Every structure is written in C-alpha cells, then in structure tokens.
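Step 1: inspect the first sequence and its tokens.
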Amino acid sequence: MPIQDSPVWQITDEALAKLDSHLAVPTPERGAALLVAHHTRLVVGVLPDPVPGQAVSYWHSDQLNEALSRRLITDPAVRYGGTVHSHPSGMAWPSQPDHIAFRNAMTQIPSLREALFPIVVQNRAETLRMPEHYGSEHLVSLDHGTIAPYSGHPTPNGGMHVEPCRLQVMPLRSSIASALAALRDLDTIVRAGESKTIKGPNGGRIWVPFTVGDKEVHLVFPQEYPESPPWVLMDARPSIPAWDLTQPPEDRLEKVIRQVAHRDTDLRVGLEARLAHHLPARAPWKITIVGNGSVGSNIAEMLVRSGVKDLTLVDPDHVAPENLSRTVYDANQIGQPKVAALKARLSGIAPDVTISTYDDAINAVPRGVWPDADLVVMATDDTAAEAWLSHILYAAGVPQVSAKMFAKADAGEIALVVPDRGTACLRCATGGTGGSTRGHSVDYGSGRLVGELALGPDIVATCAQATKVVLATLSRDSDGPLADWINPLLEQHRTLHLGSTVDSWGVFEHVAQPPMDGPFASLWVRTDSRTDCNICGETPEVPAEPLKPIEVPDDLGPVLDALIIPCGLATARLIEMDVRDRLDLLEGQIDPH
C-alpha cells in the first residue's frame, strides 16, 4: 500500500521525547506501551518497560503489564494503542518474532482492532537501508536515532497485517515553551503545568493548566492542533480564540496567552467582528430545530457557526450509515441518537453553546417547550405531525421556518411563517404538505415521507438559504442588512421560497424567463391566508390534541398514490394570484381554490 494511503497516527512531542530518551539512547532491545487518547490515533503517553527484552525479541514484562492495567483503570481517557521497542544494528522493520508478538497482542485484546507498533533504532534516517516493500517514507527522525512506525490489524483468517504508516508530531510542549519564552516581557509571570488527557465529545483532548499571575487558565488542545486552536477555559467560561494559520504555532499560542494576561481582548473577537456587519444587534435567541437529519443538522451547524448559542434539538431517530452523505455526522456516531450526536458536534464547534435535546416524536415533547422558542425550524419527514405543531406555534405567536426538499433534491422549498406580521400559516402557504410529497413515496401508516437518494450539495444549498431566512427573521425588528432584506418580503407576504437545482424544474418552466430558468433558479411567491382557515383565518381555533397515525391497509396504497397532487396546491394557487396569464400552462391539474 502506498504510504499516502496508510493510516495516519499522531504523537505529542512530549511523548516522542520520552521514546527517544528511553529507547534510542540505551542498548536495545527495550520497549514501552503506548497510551492513546480515546477515539483517536493520538499517542499521548508512554509507559517504559523496566525490564529489557531478549537479544532477538521483545514483549511486555509482567511489571509493564501490571503498570499498564493500573493506568487504564485509573485513567479512562486513554486506551492501550500498541507497543514500541528498539532494534539493534539499524534494523528499522519488524522481525518474524515481532509479527508473532503483534498478532498475540491483537488476539489477547479483542477490542483492539488497530494498533501502532513502531521500531526505534539508534541510526540516523539517512543512513538506513530499508526493505523495498517497506520503503523509507514513513521514517521520523529523533534526537538520538530514528523511529519507524508500523500499523497492524488482524486479518479474517486469524493472521496479522502489518504495514508502514505515517506518524505526525503534535508540537505541544515545543510551542508552549516557545510561547512562554516570548512572554517574559510581561509584568505577569506565566507558568504551564503538567498536561493530562481528557475525554471530549468527538475524541480525547489534552488539558494543560496555566497560571497567569493570580489567574488560573486552562487550555484544551484538540487532536487537530496546531491547525485548530485550543479552547480557553477562564472563569469557568470556554471560548475559542482567533487563530491565524499564517503564523507559526508558537506565535499563535503566545498571542492567546497574552490576551488572557491582559484580559482586555474578547477571545472570540474574530468571530464577532465577522458577524457584526450582518447581525449588529443579536439577542440571546432560542431556536428549536425539529428534525435533525440532512436538513436540520446542516441548519443547526450553520446557526452555531453564525453565533447562535441556545438550541433545542428534537428527533427520535438514530444516526445511520446512509446519513453520512448529506448530514454533519461522522462514522463514529453511527447508532447514536441524532440529538446526542448533533449536540456533540455543535459543542465541538462552540463549547459555550447551550443545547437541550428531546429524542422523542413531536407529539411526545412537553407542550411547554414550543412557546419557549423565539423561532422553530421545521425539518422533518413527518408532515402530519408537523402540521399539528405548526398550529400550536401559530397560536402561540412563534415564527416558523419550514425547509423541505422535493424528490431527489431537484428542488427545495422554504416556507416562512411570522404571526406578528400577519403572514399565512404553514398550511395556507404550502397547501398542507408544503408540496413536499411531489415525487415522494409516502408511508401511509405513519404519514412520513420515505427517504430518497439525493446529492448532498443540493440539500445543503437549500439549508444555507433557510439558515439565512432564520437569522433574518430573528433580526426583523433590528437595523442591518438582514432586516433590510427580510422586511420587504414580509410586507409583501412573499413568504414561500422555491429553488431548483436542475434545469426548468416545475413552475420555473412556466414563470421564469431566461437567464433565470437554468439550474439554481429561485422564486419568492406571495402567500395569503384563507378567510376560512382555522389557524390564520378570520376565526382561528384552539389547536387540537395530536392525532394518532391512521393505519391504512396495504391494498389501498395504489389508490392513495393516485390521489397525490403532482404539484404543490399552494404553488398553483399562488401562481394563479401573481401570474394569472400563465395559469393555463398548469394544464388544469389543480383547482386553485
């Protein structure tokens, strides 16, 4: 396997220095156990073996096994990740006894599906002659020799596959030492304490305490450091500093600690400055997102990256493999409840975000949750439950943004409902189903739409538009570009947005003129309330209790399929309002009334 396709392991410079002093300096063969942060390939600790190995082989002594067992019990943030040992005579590749020892390690620890088995030699990398099938691209220089990393995993026939792998060094202690040296001009004394590994929502992180004068500060380094910044924990409040990738890591870190010492700079100043133009008067908005799948998860992430700090997530489902092509989830989260997985994802982006979760169906969520929101995002495949919830929200005066995809994501629909501006309710705006059943299969036992294949970028395009509508709606009573953008639409009751990702989709074939009728055509449609509507009409009614799904015999499916309206009712009715001269092009499929 080419080295560029091999697994990538990481090691802190602190752990690498320990390997160098323990293995590259003394006479071979010696060894050590590697401690890896949970859910990562980051080596954060080394347990040296006090007993040397044999002349031609090495494996853990009883003393090392006992020390390793104690460490794993007392430190749940780390796991055993493999074994490193030294070789004589510049042999920087595993011997036959090594392969047997590696295989035994993998079989004795069933949970160990992948491990790191490096070889250390006292020779310099440029003097080594490596076997052709291993090559030399994976070699990493030490102060007193060379380390050659190898990754091992079991094969289906009970054997062991070993291959060279890449080993990246995290410059943790070196950048801390350089930063502290540059801070000697401060009147305040800055010291760094011993690091420890902690569990994070998406993997282990390294926690380093700092004393800045009389202030205690903690920096939490992610495994992506130095590409990603450490979190700063000060006064029990986490923040994410500005992080200029054009500067060396030690310079970035020095700037962060200097800001902490002066305490006169908002560590989120970079984020706030970028958002200030669009959101000059952001309130502590509370947003509820109903449905955390392809649409809801992407909108949630965009909102958090836009500075929203209070979210409620509602979804009864779990992350499945098919979700990975168009959501924000990763493979490690398969099988987890979507609300828990999304909370972990968002917390990793903004540690100070407040997130409440309900892994329940819409009608099982406590009813008091809904009016507590400043806005609710509708992103579910359960159109029946969503229609009931929309009535609850309209009666409570809570704005709503519904985002839906048409079949295969050929088009998307965003419906905006703002009761205090007198807009149409969701049912009047979209004809009850939002047009979202067009081309979709429906599970008539539950009322939910059956998922279809769709290109992720097409979905994300509608999610980005919906996110801007959410932020603009919440900014409607403020000054700024978003308020200037949304208020004319609200005044004209143009609260239904249709967007296509293909050429001449649906209504765009009839109402859009070149050059607007190609892919990514967009249309804001006027919507009005029906006078007899029991939600937004002249005599609104109190929302009813949720209805249970109607069980329909399988043999009625084809009959019901034939009744699905091929074009959104609201779309046809609204086009009749705005472009009467084009109504004949709809081929009489819809009664506009």
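Step 2: inspect the second sequence and its tokens, then contrast the two.
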Amino acid sequence: MSDRLTLLFSSDLHGRVGPVDPLSGQPTAGGVARVATLLREARRREPTALYLDLGDLVQGTPLSTLAARERPEQPHPLVRILNSMGCRGMVVGNHEFNFGLPFVEAMRQAADFPLLAANVLGPRGEPYFDPVLRFRQGGRTIAILALTTPQVPRWEEPWNIEGLTFRDAVETAREWVPKLRAEADAVVVAAHMGWDGVTDGGFETPLPPENDVGRLVREVDGIDAVLMAHTHRFDEQRAANGTHVVQAGSGGLGLGELTFEWAPGAARPETRYQLRRAAPYIAPAADVLELAREATERIRPRLEGVIAHASGPFTLDGLRYRDNAILSLFHRVQQKASRADLSSAVVFRGREELAAGPIRGVDLFRIYPFENDLTILELSADDVRAYLEETALAYTGPAQNGSPPPLHPMLSLYNHDMLAGCEYLIDPGKPAGTRVESLTFGGETLPGAERLTLAVTSYRAQGGGGYQALKRARVVERTGRDLRSLLVDFVREAQVLEPIVFNNWRVRGAPDPGE
C-alpha cells in the first residue's frame, strides 16, 4: 500500500496563457503555459500526482473572452489546454457563468475531466455538476468535495443561471463530509471560495457568505485539507482542528502541491504543502502556446487594428474625487445606448488611461476588462440621493493638512459608483447619510417621489457591490447588450473621440483641476 499521495492545483487562470500580458504587451511571470512546465516538473518527482483546477478559467483576456462569446459551441482554447495537461477535474468558478449555461454545457462536453460543484443544484434539486471526485491510488482512497461561491446570483444575469440554485457552502459540506469520511482515507474540499469576507468590494456582507472557508473548517469536522481560490491570494494556514488550508494565487503565478502521507497505522494523513511559483526564467510549455495560437492569430487584427483616434488624452485626473474623461466616456456610452435619465459608472483600473492618438481594440479591453450587460432601472429622486449617500461612504472624513478626504479601505475602486445626469457635491465632513449637497437634475431640484431611469451594469443591478438603494429600484429592461461591445461601437462611430469631462460632481476638500 502506498503511503503518499500528491494533489497539484491551479486556480483563477482567467484566460492567461503565455508569458506576455495580452493587454499591456509587457512580460509577465505567470500564464498557464508556465503552469504546465511546473506541472511536468512536479510529475517527474511524483508521477502519480493528480492535477485539479479550481475555476475562473475562461474570463479575463481577449483571447479567452472572444472565444467564449463568439465560438461558444467550439472547444474553448483554455479547456483544450487543461485537457493537454491531464486535468482530472475543475471546480466551476463564478466567472464560468458569465457566458451562460449553453457555454457551460459546451465546456462540459469539450472537457476530458468533470466540472465540479456540490452546492450548485439543478431544477429538480440534484447537483448540476459532479459533487465529488474519488481517486483510489495504491490502496488509499481520497475524496474531494467541490464547492463554489454561492453568491453567483448576486452578479449574473438571470438567464445565465436559469434553473440553478446555489446553496450555502458550509451547509452542503456538513451533509457530505461525514459520508466521505466513512469511505475515504483523506477528505479534501476544493473550493472556489476564499477564507472570509466579500471580494466584490461593497460594505454589505451577503448571505449565504461569498467566502466561507473559515467557517467551514470551524464548523465541519473531518476535513483533512481545503484548497481555496476566488480571492487571488497566496495562502497557507492550519485551522485549530488541524485542517490544512492552502491557496496558490491567480493568473498562472503558482502551482500548489499538497502531499498526503500516512504514518504506519494512522487513520488520518499528515499533509505537507509546497507553492511552486512561476517566474520569468521558467520556460512556457511550447505545446500549450501552440494550442492557443490559432485563437490568438484570429483575434489579433481586432486587437491591434486602429478603430478611432483620440483628439486628446483620456486621463484619470482626480479619480474618486471628481469626474474624469474615462468615466465620462463610460457614461456617454450608457446614456446613448439606454436613453436613461441618469447613468452610473465606475473606473475599473486606476492606471488605465487612453493617450491622444490611435485607439486600438486592445485599449478598450484594457479600460473595460469585465463582462457586463446594460441594465435600465427606475427609482425615485429620493432613492438617487440615498444611493449617492452610500457612494459617499467611500470617504472616511474631511480633508486634512492639505490632503484630500481619506478613502475607506473596504470600498474597492470598481464599486465606487459615480453618476451622470445630475449635479451634486459630497461633503465628507458631515455625518454619514447627510453628505450629499445641492443635488439637482439638469439644474432642477426634483420632488423626492419623481421617478427617474438609471443606466447601470448588470453586475450592479443584480446586487454586486451591495447598494441598498438600488434594491428598491424597478428593473425596466435587462438589455442583454454587452457594454464592452457598446463601447467599441461608440468609439468606432465617433472616429475622432473627444475627451469630454462632464464635471457634474465633486468632493469638498479635494483639489480642483489644475491645482
């Protein structure tokens, strides 16, 4: 009987294949082609090692996104790559649902490995994906329970997950682990979740929890190890009950290696973890690069071709304290496509600007990296004010000693909403709930009950970011129109794109433009 078994795992690859960042064009240390090299080195040491991926495989790069959107029925390049790497199973991540269930089914058909998630239930209440992987090796049995974050409905269009129910992960584990403990020498949870908290950057902690591994290991006995994902971190810790919890980063920056060893007569294994980090000196696997070559070449003209020219720079001057050209561009796109009274938008990347001159397709992927559709809501003027009061929680107090008002560390940039179609001033020195001053709509003060339409992303409309005022809004239309595509069309139609800045809002105490 073998007394050792090794699990290898990656997570949150997000479409990254080669050694060059597809958006910046700069070298990067990660990519799945380097993971493949690390994997082969590990198998030379441990030929029987089992390899898993923990999800969020296909969203995040132009190559991966366009393959999913435009050729959903064909084997996806990243799935083909995992096949070539001998993947034995993949936990379904939240981003796998970005492209709808037909695409998920196409992934399932193309994969030589099962898609996994015990807490995602189908219309009849049965697990929609395989709930457990079981391996028997050298007389030892290992059972791997797969869980994914149950907050997918908070982020996805309803039709992308139609008929599915996402259960609390800890409740699911509480049902499965005792049964698996009775039949296996080792019980592992492979979770597309992090330790705790929320990663969508808002103040709300939704239920069931988005990241719940901390509670899982506290409340469910009998788990030897947990493989974490979703939060893009490197982590290793041991819970008080001895459960070994590990995480191997994102973007192909690491390969986790977890070894189980049984001492003579021991019922439970000892575990040892090694993080195999990717690095620039590690050669990417040539055959993996080749599997992505056709898709890369097919989209290259669309990414590198010039679609318009910027008449001036689109900068992020004053970001989070006043309007800027990138933010106003997003508003312009949403306003034109929706004809709504108001537009809500965010800046996704705090350093991604557009220079004056040619605008290429890749530049628009760079400034708009996520998969969002346009949604139109209706709400009252009072709820608009309440919404803005929530955005004003981004500031923890007034400006001091010549510095702008300090920012709250919990509110991420991509959840700090800013509105167009109205004019307002935020005073961070006032108590929370009273910070929005002089709110007008086209220069007019409206009655609180006046109804207004608001263009937002599908992510925000579904609850991402946790804005309470938007929960009172009525959905006018879920357009199903991809906002990045609308952005591309807007820029192409303009041909010469002017960096307009609305300057319709500001924060008291922040420097004015030019200071």
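Step 3: confirm your contrast with the notes below.
The first strand starts at residue 4 and ends at 10. The first helix runs from residue 32 to 45.
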